[in-house]
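Obj.: predict assembly geometry.
Materials: sequence records (below).
Method: joint structure prediction, all chains together.
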Amino acid sequence: MIQVESAPRRPWIPFLTLLAALILLVLPMQELPGGFVPDWVSLVLIYWALAFPVRMGVPIAWVTGLIVDIITLGIPGAHAFTKSLIVYITGSLALRIRAFPIWQQSVVVFLLLSLELASLVIISGLTGEAVTGLHRWTAVVVGALLWPLIYHVLRRSRHSSNLRGS
Amino acid sequence: MVPHAKSGFWRGLAPYLLSSIFLISAYMNIGAVKVAASSLAVIGIPIHFVASLPSMTLAAMQGRLTTTEQLRRQSEFLREQNLILRARLQRFEFLENENNRLRELLQAAPQAVEKVTLAQLVAVNPDLGSLTVLVNKGNADDVYIGQPVIDAGGIVGQVTKSSLFTSKISLITEESQAVPVQVVRSGVRAILYGGGKNRTLRVMYLDRNVDIQPDDVLVSSGLGEIYPPGYPVAVVTAVERNIAESFMNIEARPMSHLGRDREVLLLWPAQLKSSDHGSDAMVEENSE
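Observations (raw structure tokens):
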């Protein structure tokens, strides 16, 4: 799946961070109110789609979304749909977004997460599953606010893995 | 370095979106796909296991770090608690026997014993903000959709989805949930609706003149055939009688801990135990 260009030391780093995001997603956090926990998986996918628009593209997003659906006992295909969509948009605009200052990237992340949530609400509405309330939008805002932190953490992991290029 | 130069929308995205839509519609319409999805959920087990490690180690450390003195005090407390509960249970057994005898005299069916299983929480709010929890019991442990779940305080919710080894419990506070309840003091029957996140439970469509007041305890009435009768559900916190409206505004607070504990109890109601789950049980009840 990864086309090796300059012998990266640890090409599995992106997948490890995705796995960490999946674990964070199902981590039982009794103290934190659920509405404030952002979708870690989407944030990590957006980062890697910005860094490697071709390698970490739609197929990986689709598979990851399907795993999310399956392990949370959701509708299989719902997260696969939304995550492919946002990763495609991120990948197409990657060169432009990468040139943005970090706070503008946060705005872009906010828009992407909003798009994902809107399509998730539409999908769950169409399939007759319970459409939960507006409090999920707080998670979108929190996700956008946490973007600088996630950006720096993942960039360090990328540099340690010596992955370069697209 | 030109992203998506050769694969545009039609080759880069459309196939994935279409296959997602295909999956969703297959899931909604074909039963076999649902079964396949629930058995595929076993791939989540290692992820759930790793996610449960921090809280598990924390619990283990708490056991190691407590002093002998604390342990002695704790065991003393538990012993007392146990004594009190056993004394109450004796009374309960006596009452149950008496109740069964009276039921026999009336030639009504005796109430059979319910079966319970302890289940551990593996995730809280897996769908980001929905009011559900995942537990580590699934179809392999005879969990079924619509199974009532309780904890030390009262009714927590019902199972709304189950895979082989995990199942999803919708809490009674979720907007789509409703519990048929009865006021202990006055015997009034009503339906308790979930209000959603950070909102109180609501009792709706009760006439202005119905006997209900703050601090009334609401127990499950057993109507609706999901929750067995007699389990505590909520306490009324506010009753607002408005002359202009024909119904009252009643708010209530759940009595159970709603998934804040690490364990919940899955309940197999007595009527469902003898027969197959679901429709058979309902037929059986109707014929009684």
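Conclusions so far: Residues 136-161 of chain A form the longest helix (26 residues).
To do: check interface contacts against the pulldown list.
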